[in-house]
Structure formats: structure tokens, C-alpha cells
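[retry 2/3] Lipoprotein: previous attempt timed out, resubmitting with same input.
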Amino acid sequence: MTRAITLLATATMLAGCAHTSRKPANGPGVGSASYRVADDTGMAHYQLAMGQVATGATLEAHEPPAYPDAMLSSCPSLVEVPARVIVGTQGNVGDVRMNPPAAQLPFADAVRRAVRSWRYTPLTLSRWAADADGNSHPVDTEAKPFSLDYVFTFRCEHGHTSISSGPQPATR
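[retry 2/3] Lipoprotein: success.
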């Protein structure tokens, strides 16, 4: 009896970790979206002076874009949309810049809708100094705008079962 309960509990936990989507072969596809920070894009960076420290500029609230429903019927297998996210001094996204071809416009709109709600910890530059006793303390702090480049990836599977059980193991 204990073994049966253990097997049932294990099966239940595994079922909670996996997501299965099934669509008929002739029906619309199953879409997903993800994003990553783009590789070095040659963007300018703030130059810190001696005694200056930068903190923040970390993503706090974020949801990936939704796969556009209108594109599920054509189900392109892979679409990548590069975008520059411009963040203001309060940590709110002020603009999302991209130059997508016409075929990517529904995906670009999905990126804009999602990224506009993202929230970052504001980027602050603080200047530190030491007093006569050698104790350091901040002299001044200033919030700065910043931008980050991302690549948004949209995938669609047409007529196939899609199973995801969490992060994939790293490959070398």
C-alpha cells in the first residue's frame, strides 16, 4: 500500500512539472516566446570615475511576450526579433526600439506590449569618499537612464505534441 501511495505521489508531482499541449495536425500551431540579453552589441557604457559605483539596472518584473494568436495559423517555426529597451531614471521602460521587417510586425507588437510593463531597479551612480578617519561614505548619488539589447525568440510547433519539464541541461 505504501509503495502504491509513493508511486501515485511521484506521478502526481511529475505531472505538475510537465506541460503538454496537443493540437490536431491540421489545426493551429502551439506558440511560445522567450528572450535573452543580446551579445555585446557595441553599445556605449557609462564610464565610472575613481570612487564611483554603479548599482541597480536589474530586471524586477517581467513577463515574456505572448505568441501572437494571428500567427498561429501560419505557424512560422522560428522568428527572432532584436529590440533595444530604453529605461528611464525611475526604472520604467520608456521606449522599445526595433526595426522589424513587415513579416515580423505581429511579433514586434507582442514584444512592445510585454516589455512596456517591465520594471527595473533604477541604475544609480554613487560617488564615495573617505573621511579623515578612513571611513567611506556616499557623497552623492544620481539615477541614470540606460538601455539594454535583447533578442526575443518566438517558436511554433504545428501539429506536434509539445512537452516542457523545466530548464534543459546545459550543453558544452
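[retry 2/3] Lipoprotein: Residues 2-17 form the longest helix (16 residues).
[retry 2/3] clearing retry counter.
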